[in-house]
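Dissemination and training. As part of the outreach component of the grant, students in the summer workshop were shown how a complex can be specified as a set of sequence lines and then modelled as a single object. The example used during the hands-on session is reproduced here so that future cohorts can follow it. Participants entered these lines:
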Amino acid sequence: MTRRPLLARRPAMTVRVRFAPSPTGYLHIGGVRTALYAWLWARQRGGQFVLRIEDTDVERNTDDAVQVILDAMRWLGLDWDEGPEVGGPHGPYFQSQRLDLYRAWADKLVEAGHAYRCFATKEEIQAQREAYEKEHGSKGFRFRSPWRDRTDGDRTQPHVVRFKTPEPREPGEKIGWDDLVYGRVEYPLDQQQDFVLLRHNGLPLYNFGCFVDDHTMGITLVTRGDDHLVNTPMQLMLYDALGLPRPQLAHLPMVLDDRGKKLSKRSKDVGVAVLDYRDAGYLPDGLLNYLARLGWSHGDEEIFTREELIAKFDWANVGKTASRWDKKKLAHVQGTHLRRLDDADLGERVVPFLRQRGLEVAPNDPRLLAAIAPVKLRATTLADLAADLDYFFRDDDALEYDEKGKRKFLKPEFAGNLERLAAIVESAEPFDEATLEAATTGWMEEAGLAMKHVAQPARVALTGRTRSPGLFETIVLLGRERAVARLRRGAALAQAVA
RNA sequence: GGCCCCAUCGUCUAGUGGUUAGGACAUCGGCCUCUCACGCCGGUAACAGGGGUUCGAAUCCCCUUGGGGUCACCA
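and obtained this result:
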């Protein structure tokens, strides 16, 4: 195999990495991990992160789908230095706008004798395939074009441009590379076929477009999923044919669903679309932290801020094994990030989720900030947070009661306790937790009541739920007037059951 | 099937010839306790199998098995 200049001998250059999604209607969570590692690498090394849209499959792509990608990347905070809407010196960043470039490179390859115009029809190819299969079985067919060594075709007729795969110069010759994740990877050269560069309509195929773009955009490290491992020899042959320096390569193991199957839209219980996580109230940093740890590790550390990820990420500690999506671990990591945010920040973020519930609350409302502190210990996502904040902002008469809680605790036998507690709340002076608790426990001791017999009915009356922050904390957060009203309303409801 | 990749607790992983195989999530106990969480303490739980190499193998080599990927004028 031809020896190209080794990367190590090239002058030190700034890191240029890219993420090249295809606009399919949603941004795949597995793709995001690939993007994340590339982004982390660029940020750590002070390089550039390029976003390129691979939209040559016209039938599958839509404009809206591009916007989905951009929205998702922005939400995640994976900002790009070059690409859609920000431009850059190597644009355009949509493959559909680079068709002239592909044509020019294809011409260059044809002129240099590394590619040829193939006028074989689908029928011819099919006939050859059938003849092969008759003799060798249904697998391993490689098309040998009669046009491989001809240059007399009529260019005005429909044709494709095929790469002229070099013949092995010795039996068993391989083409390979040193992968940053997998180490040495090699494929037998004689297994490669004359793959198509340009379709009859002039649109480039993946391997060709990818090569032209990566090269002309100055990409120094190509990152992608390991499902692309088999594509790499084709792209490398293109670099080699033209004597161009190869980029470094890093293939990432797949992210599988919870059953160990390739993650797809059909995977149950696993959201593959990034924006779904946004809508479900996940934090970008929580999702990114989980994703980073899925396939990469840094000793025993589990929780990383974005800055820590940038500082600590390295290719040496990226594993080779496919990993499964674990919703529960994601929830844990996400919850940890949620709890670490300060109350004011959470206030800003939770407002849209409250609005979804029909509650208009100002992000700087002191009542909101006060309630967030205890509630965030009980939430995983912003949606959870909003749900647990709900009863603090719901009108007293619009409070909804958990059915089971109501049945169990808003019963006649507790009505008296609720009335009594209401009286205590009404008269407690000063109105604070300590005073309320002292007054309540004093009464309970006299009456021989256990806390749980008072607290649970009161909790349902005050919040409609069977779980909430501490009783006295909740009362203070609600305020004297609303707490009393809710307790009395609860007492009335309890009485009415009879 | 050909080719390629992979293989440590249920899951994510640490481990790079000598460790009681560590951590995290989950799970199971316990503490805290007015509920639910948070937090804290503790337990169960893994080197796929077989051959080598070596004084010594989770670590190196081979085979088997298992899993995954890919075989387009999709990406």
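The longest helix of chain A spans residues 480-497. Students were then asked to discuss how this feature might be tested experimentally.
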